[in-house]
Design brief:
- This protein is mainly alpha-helical and 124 residues long.
- It has a domain at 13-95: Orthogonal Bundle (Arc Repressor Mutant, subunit A), CATH 1.10.10.
- It contains 4 helices and 3 strands, in the order αβααββα.
- It has a 3-stranded antiparallel beta sheet.
- Helix 1 crosses helix 3.
- The longest helix has 30 residues, at 88-117.
- The two termini are 40 Å apart.
Length: 124
């Protein structure tokens, strides 16, 4: 089964002070670039994008490199580390999501075991 690319999105993210600074400088275009980057990060197994691909990322989003760099570097929305960048918020959200999936999986396995163990035995 293909995994759905889920991530938590706070309904009031537009009011975060860093996002307000972004919106004030780059408008809703900057906000859109930000969320497109978060979506791209979510699609990556490591949740990290490489800085060396900034030109390709800008091309894929149909934005100029200067605006993209501004979103990444100017608002403290991303952590830049080891030639890559990521969203600390997304990382925390995905950790919680993986933990929840693990708990559900273990509960499902326990339920199936109980169902199997309590299944009436056929008498011959």
């Amino acid at each position: 089964m293909k995994e759905t690319y889920y991530f938590s999105h706070d309904c009031n993210a537009r009011n975060d002070v860093k996002i307000l600074k972004l919106r004030r400088k780059l408008g809703m275009e900057g906000y859109g670039i930000y969320w497109a980057l978060v979506e791209m990060l979510r699609e990556e197994e490591s949740y990290i994008l490489q800085i060396k691909y900034i030109d390709e990322i800008a091309f894929s989003l149909s934005v100029d490199v200067e605006k993209l760099n501004s979103v990444i570097y100017d608002f403290e929305l991303f952590v830049i580390e080891n030639e890559g960048f990521y969203s600390d918020r997304l990382m925390r959200s995905m950790d919680k999501y993986k933990e929840m999936l693990s708990k559900k999986s273990k509960a499902g396995q326990k339920g199936m075991k109980n169902r199997y163990d309590n299944k009436p035995k056929l008498q011959i």
